[in-house]
Amino acid sequence: MTLRDTITRLLGLQRASATTARERLQLVLAHDRSDLNPELLEQMRREILEVVSRYVEIDFDEVDVSLETEDRVTALVANLPIRRAKAVVQPGVKANISLGVKDAELAKPDAPASPEPGSASRPEVETASPTTTEPGQPAAEALQPGPTAESASRESFQNLS
Amino acid sequence: MTPHQTRNILICSGKGGVGKTTLTANLGIALARQGVRTAVLDADFGLRNLDLLLGLENRIVFTAQEVLAGSCRLEQALVKHKQEPNLALLPAGNPRMLEWLKPEDMQAIVAMLAPSFDVVLIDCPAGIEDGFKNAVSAAQEAIVITTPEVSAVRDADRVIGLLNTHGIKPIQLVLNRVRPKMMANQEMLSVNDVTDILALPLLGLVVEDEQVIVSTNRGEPLTLGGSRSPAALAYSNVARRLQGEDVPLPDPAKMGRGLRAKLSRLIKTKIF
Fold first, then answer.
1. Residue B2 resides in a domain
2. How far apart are CA B215 and CA B29, in angstroms?
3. Residue of B154, B266, B268 lying closest to A25 (CB–CB)
4. Which of A42, B215, B244, B261 has the fewest CB atoms within 10 Å distance of its CB?
5. How distant is the Cα of A18 from the closest Cα of chain B, in angstroms?
6. pLDDT digit string (tens) for A76-123?
């Protein structure tokens, strides 16, 4: 960010068009170079989330999967904040319930950008809900994000385009 | 005569109207003035214009088409420039050539030119379709020309990707129509923005110059008359760098002298 950008931001003015041009270009070129159309990218994103959420509970609101490019090398950068590690694949009722609540919460605002919270997690909710005996429990779960430290996993791999 | 390696250089941009043909004409003249035997090959068969910019449009008898068909010799088709006899144009043939022209035909043409020339500049058509593929097949190195505009840079990026897959090396960049004042006001992509995004070495930087239009009106490339206009100097410098000479690139921020330029440099300082 340049001095001018800061001044214009402080004054609430429009920022320099060169900055906008550069940012727009970098974004569009990352997509051009990868030769991935938006649908494919969205599908890949959904599947990545599906796989990762089998092992850990992801903060879907903060998920960011995007293409970045530097020196003509395009990388897929996924930033997936983890709420907690899931109890081992053993269908732990507790873990499933909390995920189910999160899914329900996500479904309501239904932001188009947010991923469909995973076709994989949905079935889990269905199998989990009948076992829920106390209706109060899931809500309490959701309110307390738990002591597990939130960590962000940043994985990138090179796209050979 | 000692055997020599002819350099077949593609001049391309992706987007139309950014200055490919103007660069080809001026670079051809500038190289010829340096004593380099130069052929300019108009590979834009659909919309040929190189003859017009060089002022040779009335002297065309045969074209690449007749040469390929075997109905004339190469020497008959080449149009020698009167003032710069080191430069010759091989005109593009009829647009219908596009229907049958193959990469092998372009390769045959440059092979025919090789014994008599040191440098062959291939003026590439806009776009990335067959015309581009034919032209690229005849080249070993390339100059990509672009302007500091989003559409031109995006198209240049696409072309660079294709050049890479064709194994073209080196690929160098000419940034055309630079407006130092707009750059200083940060209302135009900076030189660094463009070179960073495209990740190519900069071969030349040409400022916007009305004299370019005047010279195309007359069919006399700027580099021909020893013009002192900024663009003429820029094109000559491109030719010198292409020949391996170390000519420093101008800094557009310093093109505007005085307080205004100093202020603009200050305001562009990265603070975080």
1. no
2. 13
3. B154
4. B244
5. 5
6. 888 888 888 876 655 444 433 333 333 333 333 344 444 444 433 333
Q: Which of residues 11-50 of A touch B (CB under 8 A)?
A: 16-19, 21-22, 24-26, 28-29, 32-33
Give A69→chain B minimum CA distance, Å: 9
Q: Å from A43 to nearest chain B CA?
A: 25
Give B183's contacts in chain A (Cβ within 8 Å).
18
Complete edge-to-edge strand list for the sheet that includes strand B171-178: B79-80, B87-90, B38-42, B119-123, B7-12, B141-146, B171-178, B202-207
Of B186, B197, B271, the CB nearest to A25: B197
For residues B29 and B178, give the distance between their C-alpha atoms in angstroms, rounded to a whole number.
22
pLDDT reading at B178 higher than 60: yes
pLDDT above 80 for B45: yes
β-bridge mates for residue B122, sequence order: B10, B41
Q: Does residue B1 fall inside a structural domain?
A: no
Q: Which burial class, exposed, middle or buried, applies to B116 when counting CB atoms under 10 A from its CB (0-12, 13-18, 19+)? A: middle
The arithmetic mean of pLDDT across residues B59-82, rounded, is 95
B6 touches B118 (CB < 8 A): yes
Could you give the number of structural domains in chain B?
Answer: 1
pLDDT for A160: 37
User: Which amino acid, one-letter code, is at B265?
Assistant: R
ipTM of this predicted structure: 0.80
